[in-house]
Amino acid sequence: MKKEFLKGNEAMAEAAVRAGCRFFAGYPITPQNEIPEHLSRRLFEVGGEFVQAESEVAASYMVYGSSMTGTRCMTSSSGCGLALKAEGIGYITGARLPAVVINVGRGGPGLGQILPSQQDYLSATKAPSNGGARAFVLAPSNVQEAVDLVYEAFDIADKYRCVCYVLTDGVIGNMMEGVVLPEMRDLSSLPDKSDWVVTKRGPGPNTQFGNKRIITSWQNTGEELEATNQVFADMLEGWKANETRYEAYQMDDAEVVFAAYGTSARVAKTVVNKMRAEGIKAGLLRPITLFPFPEKPFEALDAAKVKKVICLEMSIPGQLIEDVRAFVDKKIPVEHFGRSGGVILKPEEAYEASKKML
Amino acid sequence: MEKSLLIAGFGGQGVMLIGKTLCLTANDNGMNATFFPAYGTAQRGGTANCTCIISDEEIGSPVCETFDNLIVMNEPSYQKFAPTLKEGGEIILNSSMVTSRPADGVKYYAIDSIKIANDLGNTKVANMVILGAYIAVAGNLDVDQVKEQVKHALHGKEALFDINMKAIDAGIAAVKSA
After folding, report:
1. So what's the ipTM on this one?
2. Which CATH superfamily is domain B2-176 in?
3. For B2, which residue in chain A has the nearest alpha carbon?
4. Chain A hits for B63, Cβ within 8 Å
5. What is the CATH number of domain A247-357?
6. Where residue B44 falls among pLDDT bands split at 50, 70, 90?
7. What does the alpha-carbon distance between residue A309 and residue A301 come to, in Å, rounded to a whole number?
């Protein structure tokens, strides 16, 4: 198959189209603009709809409405744009609707910087909205993986009727790399949603007012909402048990373990290779699902063998490190090295800083 | 074997075009390549640079602090990036706009790209002269394949093929006669 050479943002946008995405609403923000740019042309070619909304908040609710009709839909943004979309993400989650959200991370907090950063780990994995809403969070570390995960994100969103959140950063969004694009999905092969979509009538879990269907995140009683939240809790337990993903690189005999995701994981790989060349037994654990977090490989680190865990992140203070510390044996020291604010982490400095920690 | 290259200059000098052309050629050849651009808010006249990494193995970090090769298109870029050259690395400098020269022992090629382009009849192909020079220095990319990429980028402007191809050849010749 032909390996094309594409910019991460464009490649992710095309992957969404091929996964069956037929509605996108967004609002411009750097460094993700090539996603709406590509879709503004491409969606019309495949019979879809594209809306440049009047605001991020509006865009998130347009996706909410689109999902109620059963259409595969997506929005994308960065940093403070996601903060605005948080409102719609909560409604989508509460109403148990599938949607895909891409965050091409930039520096924060606030308006911050347009340059690449990984400062949305906590907001993505812990609280993408209010009320305890959680999203399934995927973190690609190269353009091919970004394409593959965006493609799959629509299946995950449909399977669980949840928000599937692809957390990338401005490096992956703006770099060009070789990529094999997936097949165009046949829309007739997509999951059947006829038992709940609002565009149909008749009996369903959400039928009210005779045979009309209603979709809302509002619940009439506390008991009903509690029951729904129990459904969410069970779903999250299922994710933890069945859906965690990670990559273990040079881990068999590793005494120094790097923990990193996304662009930082690529930097970490370069550092691991350099250390291995010097005889230092370094390895890398790279979470691919950030939520559910891959707890097991971190719990399995043996204190008798592993001398140190080093989290590399484009965030100051570290954020990934909070999850890593929670699952690594307390006898193993866990340290952080990172850059922030849009300063891209470089392998040379990460190597130097890590060497000093050994 | 992994080779890192930084190309730096003003926006409008063809910094991104040179980088993309090299990476596209490598990608089409079955090699791994990453292209990471960095530029200011001004497209033309602002600072622009890109990092190109080409390897026959999996590429780790797509960014780095030190490089195997540098292409510097103007004096400010030379001042900023000359110290990032790895020991034993090589610099191609656009001597039409770079007055400084590296310290003794550093291998470099001074290419008077604007004069060469003017002699060919169009200043705008100065970046193709530099591209040709890099192909000659790097030695790991096929000239004809690079030319095909340039023709692809010039799709619809077939009248410009000839002068651009000549500019690439002139860049190669400039390195060989240096």
Report:
1. 0.94
2. Pyruvate-ferredoxin oxidoreductase, PFOR, domain III (3.40.920.10)
3. A270
4. 171, 267, 344-347
5. 3.40.50.920
6. low
7. 9
